[in-house]
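Message: Just now I want nothing more than another pair of eyes on a protein record. I am handing you a single protein, as its sequence and its fold in token form. As I understand it, each token names a local backbone shape. Take your time, and here it is.
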Amino acid sequence: MTHVREPSTIESLVRREVLSLPAYDPGADPEEVARGSGATRVIKLSNNENPYGASPTVTAAVQRRLADVARYPDPTAKRLAHAIGGNLSVPTERIVLGNGSENILELLCQAVLDPGDLVITQAPGFSLHDTFPRMMGARVEKIPVTREFGFDAAAWQHALAASPKLVFLANPCNPTGAILTSAELEHVVAATPQSALLVLDEAYYEFARPNPAYPDGLQVLRNQDRPWIVLRTFSKAYGLAGFRVGYGVASSATLVRALDRVRTPYNVNQLAQDAAVAALGDQAHLADTVRRTGLEIARIANQLRDAGLRVAPSAANFLFIDTRCDADWVTRELHRSGIIVKAWRETGYGNFIRASLSTPEENDFFVRRLLEICRRRER
């Protein structure tokens, strides 16, 4: 007798690890906030975007390519890889390109992790440093920052002794914006077992670079005889968030070839490749963006601290702010004024919001409304 298989439910088909994953939180939808608030202008401070935009050379490069959109992109992105390699003095065979640097985080987990493997990362931290390993059935241990948002050397030393397979470390940290100094980064490198892959996520590298205490992770790791990869992106300081271009510099071409086995062949589209090459070629625009952003970070952080709020020290383009009350409520109240920030829902940080800064005028409006909301709650 032929056995008739019962129809499957979606839940029975999907892997157990996937069913338990949290949804990524991109922040509120600007159109919905505009409709709900009636605001004529929405100020979006939730995604760490660059308010000054991309270099004008990017627009010209993209326009030149539009006639070729019926063609597939270069699957190796060799022109962009050569540009990055020349800029960093790195062989192109050690460069991997991604649809944003989080695409490379995903590839690393797919290529390296087996169920039950241990991954070490920080808390609070970028959600995908937790989500992608869990997607592969790995275990994730998060090392908390100190009360002052600093590096807990003893906690990292203890965690790394447990033989993780992957170590995700962001410098600067997202969401706090705090940095590891050269000595702290070297402490992690020395404590990480040779059997582990050390992943240094430097998505905000360009913003942090002017800080004399900030180490260039590529220089720290360049001569290390161990597996490592440094991740950077064009989405933040270069202003190409809409194009989604990230890259990694790996310790060896062997690691890049492994990532090539699991990435899609055309994971960086041709317009994005051309845009990134153009952006990389305009270092003056980048320097101006970094300078203006740094001035605003210092100015707004000082204003908030003077008003009595606790703000993490930030070397990035965003601030991590203790509102002293429920952050979800604060976020909803800001929506009434057309301002979007991200409430941080990680355990232990329910009073914190992360706000990427914009132009001085928009930043001033944000500060006024935030302080009004916090004072109203305290009355």
